[in-house]
Hints:
The structure is a single chain. With 390 residues, the chain is α/β, with parallel strands linked by helices. It contains 15 helices and 13 strands. Strands 8-7-11-12-13 form a five-stranded parallel β-sheet, with helices on one face. Strands 1-2-3-4 form a four-stranded parallel β-sheet. It has a two-stranded antiparallel ribbon with strand order 5-6. The chain is flat and about 90 Å long.
Amino acid sequence: xxxxFFYHLRKYQLPVSVKEYLTxxxxxxxxxxxxTLDDFYRMARMxxxxxxxLFDKYDQAFASFAKGIEAKLPASKEIPMDWLIKEFQKxxxxxxxxxxxxxxxEKLLELFKQRLEEQKERHAGGNKWIGTGGSSPFGHGxxxxxxxxxxxxxxxxxxxxxxxxxRLFQEYDANQELGTRNFKVALRRLxxxxxxxxxxELDLDDTIRSTARNAGYLDVKMVPxxxxxxxxxxxxxxxxxxxxHIQRVEELFSxxxxxxxxxxxxYFHNCVYERVWRYGHDRRRQYIDTWDLLRKYNEDWxxxxxxDATMSPYEIMAPGGSVEHFNKEAGATWLQRIIDTWPxxxxxxxxxxxxxxxxxxxxxxxxxxxxxxxxxxxxxxEQGMRFLSK
Length: 390
């Protein structure tokens, strides 16, 4: 099985060496206790994968391998609970969805508290209690136009205005190269070259002139390597509806990494609030207060925000509107602080621009950004870079 696992990782183009594979076998030969599948996943990743940007590709390979193992195991006599729960879900027609009464944010939270106090047992299906499936505004796996998701995965409708659980979003792959060439060309509008550092690059013209003056004896002249001196701070929206745009944003992110010598990247979800984050080697969020971010980078930096700006208007305009936590100040307040600190700020939106007029949240953010929102197309990025380079 382990040799199959080794070749399976190679099939996914992961740079796994024979020496690393033998190390894994040595570790497994001296177990302290029988490992679970999760233990093996972490142990193999720690032993075989040396670059954290490959963790996502490893996850995909491991998931595929694990499914193959599960298919070979004898079938369980018990019916999976997840399957039973899904059977309770209602098949709502568009008319039924439209008939569900919408609640305001304050009323929604009030009803949620009331349901928690009244409900005494688990519930699935239906339109009132906190449970799974159905059309209740509380629970998960069903549909309600403005609900609170509790204790499980989304059904894909993306209508929750609150999410009562921690959500771990995967950072974008910095090694994505396919399709980035046009993005690189567009981003070069922002280039400001400067000579800095040690002399590492051949100055051909000066070498020819100096050799000619030296009666033909070679006199090599070097200059410092040429770098893009523009300093760029990128704030990237991840998770939720942004999952539909991962490939395009990865291409943009990869192009920015190769074009900008000074590039700092932080993440947020839907709208910026009192903290943003980076991802550590263990893929956990490492938070930083937004106030610290505003103080750390001076006004020389250019800010590129990337997100689809598609969310509930509460998340922009109302304290407590965030789907992940209770934010004391509205998202619009933090966006305005970003613009006041860095006047050269643009918002790049992967949503097609002809949809923007139908999204209230996009109109709100465009207004806050003083109309400096551009689509993630070559022409859109060029327009944004022209504004940043002024």
